[in-house]
Specification:
The complex is a heterodimer of chains A (237) and B (408). Chain A has 237 residues and is α/β, with parallel strands linked by helices. Chain A has a single domain (34-51, 79-236), classed as Rossmann fold, CATH 3.40.50. Chain A has helices spanning 48-55, 78-88, 104-113, 119-132, 148-160, 178-194, 206-209; strands at residues 4-17, 20-33, 37-41, 63-68, 71-72, 89-92, 166-170, 198-202, 214-219, 222-228. In chain A, the strands form two sheets. A six-stranded mixed sheet of chain A has the order 6-7-8-3-9-10, sandwiched between helices. Chain A has a four-stranded antiparallel sheet with strand order 2-1-4-5, covered by helices on one side. Chain A is globular. Chain A starts with a strand and ends in a 9-residue tail after the last strand. Chain B has 408 residues and is α+β, with helices and mostly antiparallel strands. Chain B has two domains: 3-52 and 271-406, no CATH class; 81-258, no CATH class. Chain B has a six-stranded mixed β-barrel. A two-stranded antiparallel ribbon of chain B has the order 2-3. In chain B, a hairpin with a 2-residue loop joins strand 8 (175-178) and strand 9. The longest helix of chain B is centred in the last third of the chain and has 44 residues, at 265-308. Chain B is elongated, with a radius of gyration of 33 Å. The two termini of chain B are 28 Å apart. Classes of the chains: A alpha/beta (237), B alpha+beta (408). At the A-B interface, helix 2 and helix 3 of A face helix 1, helix 10, helix 11 and helix 13 of B.
Chain lengths: 237, 408
């Protein structure tokens, strides 16, 4: 049993914008081990969102191979990708992306609607996920009545629901203040350490990126640098 | 996602915006309601016509003089004056498919009793008229064969005429005057009700046809012969027998045009029922257009709803919804909308049909709510939902998850 969760081999992605072709990714090769905490950094337009979408099985590479948990998902069709997203990946977005006018519980339950989980078990699972993010008492609140931090915790609860091997966070603290950001990052760290969930996070805030054990920097569709541990973080303290 | 779960998700989504859900379904509610109430008016009219003909007797036949042409000029039906009482006798005696005949003549005259008078229709009939016309007496007796032979000055009143001349007084045995000739009242016929709005069948008086011909009109020919066949099944046979006999009696060469005409009531009734059937179809199809418009309303709102919920679709896709799941969700929403609308519409339509008779301009229509119309309208509304829900649902399912998630 390999210890590699994500294996990217020479990934490229080409977008067509009108007549011109945009090279969003130009040959990315990288490996992420199980239980890793990785931050992807880079300026806007560097291709980090594209990379994120491909890792999240929302998009397919133009060429190259992507193995997730030993499966070559770059060959999967749309339906199979949806299945992978449902069972292996949890998403956390900058804008939380919760359903409006819907209770916290219903939001957390959402992934289970598309899985084989029995309706009776759904509520119990959703409640325990809410408990893990410390929001069990808010289960029946509508999402628009909650604060940003609470909304993001609900989103994390939703991401946790199917016991994913991977949580993908796209600028998870982008819309939050410093204190709430720290709370969210602590939840991530805890999930990573205690539940051995692999975390991949896109951010352009260096102090947020420093919660991760590894950081890669992307520019013009290529990985230009990799940092491990507290490298480059010390002077911030 | 199975159907139950999809329906639950759809119901949840619809309940998040109740006002819009109601307004969207309103088109279907009105459409289904209109179809059901319109068809029930049509069915009611049809039933009314059928009842009316049944009350006249469906095994009824009429012989009337045909139209005659001389030098290319047609006189129109009834131009001949060759229908004689003897023809009626011969038909009754020689055709075995026939039970009774009743020769008929008619005219109009002023009828006078004490200080009241009334202009009414005078029907000269045979003694079997009540049997032939399936018409019972309210009181008294009808005149018999002997009185007919003698041309007796006796009469039977229609209920409307009785009311006008006698009010609450007992008319039996009283003497009234028709064209100044005294007639003794033998009985009163039961009310048959309005027949067409322009002709009240109860506003009439019957006298022996012999008396009408000799004393009131001074003619020796009949205007028609009313005939009752032995049974409804044998009306066709009766018609053939009458035609054959009449051709012999009137010495009509083979191939020549008949100088008489035989019609039977079931044919006339069928024709009338067909006409009202066409009316029902017409009303129903006009109302279906509103159902169609309701469907387009659903499509419209579903399209708006898809655009409004692009982000939601993106989220659902991100957590693992497949194209099929999204398609099914939006399709189910449309179907739930139209089925709910259809259900409410059924109640609305049935209620409207019941209430309609209390509104004065519709009061003359009986309405008959037909199960067939309900099922049809309901099934149609459900398929309208599928048909018009499909395009928006497909649009939703074809969205790219990345674009959908980023949509502002």
């Amino acid at each position: 049993m390999s210890n590699i969760l994500i294996q990217l081999e020479d990934l490229t992605k080409v977008y067509k914008v009108g007549e011109t072709e945009v090279q969003a990714l130009q040959g990315i090769s990288y490996k992420v081990e199980k239980g890793e905490f990785l931050a992807i950094m880079g300026p806007s337009g560097s291709g980090k969102s594209t990379l994120m979408n491909i890792i999240g099985c929302l998009d397919k590479p133009t060429s190259g191979k992507y193995y997730l948990d030993g499966e070559e998902v770059s060959t999967f069709d749309k339906n199979k990708l949806a299945r992978v997203r449902n069972t292996k990946i949890g998403f956390v977005f900058q804008t939380f992306n919760l359903l409006p006018r819907t209770t916290a519980l219903e939001n957390v339950e959402l992934p289970l609607l598309y899985s084989d989980v029995h309706p009776k078990d759904r509520t119990a699972l959703a409640l325990s996920a809410l408990e893990r993010v410390g929001l069990k008492d808010r289960a029946h609140h509508k999402t628009n009545q909650l604060s940003g931090g609470e909304q993001q915790r609900i989103a994390i609860g939703r991401a946790l629901l199917n016991n994913p091997s991977l949580i993908l966070a796209d600028e998870p603290t982008g819309n939050l203040d410093t204190k709430t950001s720290a709370e969210i990052m602590n939840i991530f760290t805890q999930l990573n350490r205690e539940n051995k969930i692999t975390m991949v996070m896109v951010t352009h805030e260096p102090d947020i990126a420093c919660y991760a054990r590894k950081r890669i920097y992307i520019r013009d569709g290529k990985i230009i640098r990799e940092e491990i541990g507290r490298e480059g973080c010390e002077e911030k303290k | 996602m199975n159907i139950l779960r999809t329906t639950r998700v759809a119901l949840l989504a619809l309940s998040r915006n109740k006002m819009r859900t109601f307004l969207t379904a309103l088109g279907i509610i009105i459409g289904v309601g209109a179809v059901i109430s319109m068809v029930s008016i049509g069915e009611g009219a049809k039933r009314g016509v059928e009842d009316r003909f049944n009350s006249m007797g469906t095994n009824l036949l009429f012989v009337s003089p045909g139209s005659h042409a001389r030098g290319g000029v047609h006189s129109g039906a009834g131009g001949y004056i060759n229908l004689k009482p003897e023809d009626a006798d011969a038909i009754e005696k020689q055709c075995d498919a026939i039970k009774y005949t009743s020769p008929a003549v008619n005219t109009r005259a002023q009828v006078v009793y004490s200080n009241k008078n009334w202009n009414t229709s005078i029907q000269g009939t045979g003694a079997r008229y009540p049997e032939v016309r399936n018409w019972e007496l309210d009181q008294g007796t009808y005149f018999d064969e002997n009185q007919v032979k003698a041309g007796a000055k006796v009469c039977v009143l229609g209920s409307e005429l009785k009311k006008n001349l006698f009010e609450d007084e007992d008319p039996i045995g009283k003497v009234i005057r028709i064209k100044k000739i005294p007639f003794r009242v033998l009985g009163v016929l039961k009310s048959k009700g309005q027949s067409g709005g322009w002709f009240n069948r109860d506003d009439m008086i019957t006298v022996p046809y012999t008396a009408a011909m000799k004393r009131l009109m001074g003619v020796d020919y009949l205007s028609s012969i009313d005939i009752q066949a032995v049974s409804m099944a044998r009306t066709k046979e009766a018609q053939t027998q009458i035609e054959e006999l009449m051709r012999i009696r009137h010495k009509i060469a083979p191939g020549a045009v008949d100088d008489f005409e035989v019609r039977n009531m079931s044919e006339i009734a069928e024709g009338a029922a067909q006409a009202t059937g066409i009316m029902t179809i017409l009303l129903g199809s006009i109302a279906s257009i509103s159902l169609l418009v309701g469907g387009i309303g659903i499509m419209n709102i579903m399209l708006v709803s898809v655009t409004e919920r692009i982000r939601e679709i993106g989220i659902r896709m991100a957590v693992g919804a497949r194209e099929k799941d999204i398609l099914l969700q939006f399709l189910t929403e449309a179907v739930v909308l139209s089925v709910l609308g259809g259900l409410i519409g059924v109640f609305f339509g049935v209620g409207l049909s019941k209430v309609l008779k209390y509104i004065s301009i519709f009061s003359q229509f009986k309405t008959v709510v037909s199960l067939q119309a309900i099922i049809m309208a309901f099934a149609f509304s459900a398929s309208v939902g599928i048909f018009f829900g499909f395009y928006p649902a497909r649009k939703a399912s074809r969205l790219d998850p990345i674009d959908a998630l980023r949509y502002e």
